[in-house]
Amino acid sequence: MGHLPTDPVRSALMKRVRQSGTPAELVVAKVCHSLGLSYRRNVCSLPGSPDLANKKGRWAIFVNGCYWHHHTGCMRATVPTRNKAFWTEKFRANRRRDAAKIRQLRAAGYRVVLVWECEVADEARLRSRLAQICAKRVS
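Above: the chain sequence. Below: its structure as tokens.
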């Protein structure tokens, strides 16, 4: 189909990227814990397997990597120059899938928070955003 061969070094690097337990996810979990939120990690029974979720409280948090989920306007959301058409479509499909899973969760009555990897650097701002879940928590 006209794809350029994959660079083996790049391929090995991409295979090492974690899907769960990322540094950003760990920061969000720590903030949630400090706010007194109880949660489960990587809840496979919910659409999109949210990184953190509480079924009783009906909330879910996705911690998205800026690169893989292509965070609009973020400097981390680059497109590789090699095989650009493939990557552009891959990122587009990731975003479509993410949006569909969020819609499904909201239709089921869940509050959904999307945290981008670049947002975890400002822990105070993240804390205030996640505290909104606390305020709306179901007892």
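The first helix runs from residue 8 to 15.
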